Amino acid sequence: MSLNVLSKYRKIIKLIHRIPSGPQRQEALVKARQDMEVGRLAQGAQAEALLEKMDDQIRYLKIITPKSQDEERILVESTVYVVRDGKVVEGTGQRGPSRVADGKIGMSEAYDKHHSLLKRQYFGREPPKYDPGSF
Description:
Elements: H1 3-16, H2 23-40, H3 45-64, H4 69-77, E1 81-84, E2 87-90, H5 107-121
Antiparallel strand pairs: 1-2
Helix pairs in contact: 1-2, 1-3
């Protein structure tokens, strides 16, 4: 029995254990064990067919089984970090109108803001000079 078959079998068993307790779970475990017993002696084309069948079963189980508690916990506990005043802090980004078209800031302030954003894009270095002929 190859390691590939064994790893796929373990993955199938892990996914089956995510099915809520009941007859469907028991049937799936019995079927997986029976397939593994038959596949233990498989060679050549029969072994390749077994691997494909196991891949299909893994894909199907991923669809029908609920997410594990660990995966849900990771999704719930994720946080967002942003940079404010040069420091990384927990929070969300700020969105607000700060465009010249809104009339909130002047043209020179908008140019300064644009230049600081370009400098940020180039990791603190001065961006290259604009060359209209490059387009």
